[in-house]
Design a protein that fits this description.
alpha/beta; S16 Ribosomal Protein, Chain: A
C-alpha cells in the first residue's frame, strides 16, 4: 500500500486551517486517513497566532517508511527542515528570492506537551520585493 502525506482543508469561511494527514494514495482526500500528524493555521487572528504544529517524530517515521508528500505538504515539512526545498519552477517570476513569511512553529510530541518557539523578525514584503526588482533592472541596464 503506497502512502502519501497530504494537506486537507478543515477551515471555515475566512478562517483557513489545514490538517497534515497520512493517507493511502488511492483514497479520496475527504476519505479515511491513517494518522493526523499536524495542523497549519496560516492566518493571524485576535486570539490565534499564525502557526504550524507538527508531530515531528511521527512525520519522520512516515517519511522513513516511504510516505511521499504532496507539493503542499512538502512546503510545510521543509519549514521544519525535514525535507530539502523544492526546485523553483522555470520562469522569470522565480528568479528572485521571496522574503519568508513569519510563522510560529510548534513541535509537539503528543497533545498536551508543547514547546513554543517563534520567529520575531518582521519583513516589509512590498519594499523588499521592489528593492530586488530595482537591483535586477539596474544589472540588466548595465549589461
Amino acid at each position: 500500500m503506497r502512502v502519501k502525506i497530504k494537506i486537507r482543508d478543515m477551515g471555515v469561511k475566512r478562517q483557513p486551517k489545514w490538517w497534515l494527514l497520512v493517507q493511502p494514495q488511492e483514497k479520496n482526500l475527504k476519505g479515511k486517513y491513517l494518522e493526523r500528524i499536524g495542523v497549519w493555521m496560516p492566518r493571524e487572528r485576535k486570539t490565534v497566532k499564525r502557526n504550524i504544529a507538527i508531530n515531528t517524530h511521527r512525520a519522520n517515521y512516515w517519511l522513513s517508511v516511504g510516505a511521499i508528500p504532496t507539493k503542499g505538504a512538502h512546503r510545510v515539512l521543509e519549514r521544519f527542515g525535514m525535507l530539502p526545498a523544492l526546485n523553483p519552477a522555470y520562469g522569470s517570476r522565480q528568479s528572485y528570492q521571496k522574503p519568508e513569511r513569519i510563522y510560529q512553529t510548534t513541535h509537539f510530541f503528543g497533545f498536551g506537551k508543547q514547546k513554543f518557539g517563534a520567529n520575531k523578525v518582521a519583513m516589509h514584503y512590498k519594499q523588499k520585493l521592489q528593492e530586488e526588482m530595482n537591483l535586477i533592472e539596474r544589472k540588466r541596464r548595465l549589461a
